[in-house]
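S1.2 Input.
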Amino acid sequence: MNRMNILKKASVFIAVIITVMGLNAQSGKPVRIGVDGLTHDHIHGLLNKYKERTDIRVVGIAEPNKEKAKMLSDRYGFDMSIVYNDLATMIAETKPEGVVAFNSIYGHLNTVEICAPRGIHVMLEKPLAVSVEHAEKMEKLARENNIYLLTNYETTWYPAHYKAFEMAVQNQEIGDINKVMINDGHKGPVEIGCSPEFLAWLTDPVLNGGGAVIDFGCYGANLMTWIMQNQEPETVTAVLQTVKPEVYPKVDDQATIILTYPKTQAIIQGSWNWPVDRKDLSIYGKEGYIAVHNQRDLEYRLTRSAPKEKIEVTAFPSVAKEPFGYFANVIRGKLKVNATDLSSLENNLIVVKILAAAKQSAAEGRTIRFKK
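S1.3 Output.
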């Protein structure tokens, strides 16, 4: 081997080492995160203790309502210099790797339209979109631009859900699943003191896509789609009511959705009229049942003759136990998003279709056969 070839091979080897070292250094850096909107009250989950995090760094915020931004700046300590009037400007100035959206559900499409062509990954607060039309446009943009498009639900981070899934779906410990009941909601967004900025779009049929049917029906649709491993329902039947028209004149505040599958039925109840906060589900099989009462408390009977058991579940099946760590790990390639995951685009496209069919069913007073 002559000296020239040796030098060439050495230079290639050095280049590889430098590249690997660069990638390793990059993977160790906090993920640069941008925020689109501050009007969703779930923003507190990000801003609370965000300065103590080492996995993400909030580099920019897009929020035209400077009064709202200043109020949150005073509370959480971010500098108003990172707040921009619009998302495109914020991205140009701060170069985020991912954007989390805390705007109206209607605004999700605009978030993706701006981020996707720039190769910026997106995580939205539930649900994915206000309509199937919006959802399909967002899917197309995500696929064409090879970005992650994730949807975040509070219930995704309940350890008891994963234990119930392991027992009922993976291990089939209660036999064939024939009925699932999922209940979500609270006294109502006005009643629990949601911010005026949040209420302005949450109670708007265009900006939110509906009332309780969207706000809390989406949880059940998401969980049931996960339990059924992305199998679409055969039919959707829904009844929507406005029990408090003096409080919610434009949208429903009570929703019941029935989904049917070849051998399974789901009843999803979303309401702004529960006397207490609820996020619980029960899975019934041929032999037994599993009930998730909250984040950690799980009850089950595996057979009719078995005694009732109660356990507290604290173990979480992933290195990421909350949404922003999850988003960072996905962006860095440390976690893979499977099509059947609760946050996946595939699951959440089905969720939007279920919610659209539910609204149609209630409006027309009939069962809707699900479009494949």
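S1.4 Remarks. Residues 155-319+339-369 form a domain with the Dihydrodipicolinate Reductase; domain 2 fold (CATH 3.30.360.10).
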